[in-house]
Amino acid sequence: MKLIIFSGFLGSGKTVSILSLAKYLSGKNGGRAAAGYGAKAVILENEVGDVNYDQSMLRKSGYEIINMLAGCICCTLSNDLMTQLREFVPWYNPEYVIFEPTGLAYPEAISETAKESGVELEWVRTVTVVDALRYGAIMEMAPKLMEAQIGAADTILLNKIDAADADELAAVRRGIPAINPNAALYEVSAKQGVPDKVFERITR
After folding, report:
1. Residue 66: its pLDDT value, please?
2. For residues 127 and 88, what is the distance between their CA atoms, to the nearest angstrom?
3. 3-state SS of 108-123?
4. Alpha-carbon span 135 to 171, nearest angstrom
5. Can you give the pLDDT at residue 25?
6. How far apart are CA 52 and CA 73, in angstroms?
7. What's the rounded Cα separation, in Å, for the pair 82 and 188?
8. Cα–Cα distance between 75 and 81 in angstroms, integer?
9. Residue 179: phi, psi to the nearest 5?
10. What domains, with CATH codes, occur in the chain?
């Protein structure tokens, strides 16, 4: 089983990015399943908000969604995450578990919790979605959280580039590599769909 953690501050575009990944895995936009891959995935939600339309679309693609709304994964939900991961293997046996924590979560803590769950994981990867429009404001408001989310990422999706101006993009293009020079960085507009090449890297 492979675990993909989608980190990112509130409103950064995590859910829309996950929807795009689900379409890729199911083959709806020419992804792996369209070529006979047939990946099976389960999506865990820990974000309070209006995600019903996303759940409806995802379930039409054959995905199971489980909501975890009792609290923040970095604190009260640690034991629940372990329990959920242990239950996935016998009941769903997915190849991928895609986990969207609350926007206030620290992904490194989530990764450690998953590794301590007792479930055999082939790998754990973190994708952090960064809001190009609000990068500066969020860095001022919650610098430690943003640095932790960016710093823990294997892949960073710089989202909303279609709406950001040149100065906003220049600032975030300087800021992200200074925090995490090793992560793969992609500039995207999640609402228009994340390119397949991004998911090829994330899921391989």
Report:
1. 55
2. 21
3. HHHHHHHHCCCCCCCE
4. 8
5. 83
6. 21
7. 32
8. 11
9. -85, -45
10. 2-194 (3.40.50.300)
Q: Where are the alpha helices (DSSP H) in 92-164?
A: 107-115, 135-141, 143-151
For residue 88, give Cα distances in angstroms to 46, 106, 141, 171.
16, 23, 37, 41
The position carrying tokens 């997915």 is 94
For 17, the token pair is 């990015």
pLDDT the model gives residue 91: 77
CB 94 within 8 A of CB 42: yes
Dihedral over Cα of 13, 69, 125, 30: its sign: negative
pLDDT at 40: 76
Q: Mean pLDDT, 10 residues at a time, over the chain (204 residues)?
A: 92 89 74 53 66 55 52 43 72 83 89 84 95 95 96 97 94 97 96 91 89
* Residue whose tokens read 């991961």: 85
In the structure encoding, which two tokens stand for residue 191, read together? 């609402």
* Per-residue buried b or exposed e for 85-112, using 16+ beta carbons within 10 Å of the residue's own CB: beebeeeeebebbbbbbbbebbbbbbbe
pTM: 0.84
| Three-class DSSP category at 193 | coil
Residue-level length of the chain: 204
Q: Where are the alpha helices (DSSP H) in the chain?
A: 14-26, 52-60, 78-91, 107-115, 135-141, 143-151, 166-179, 196-203
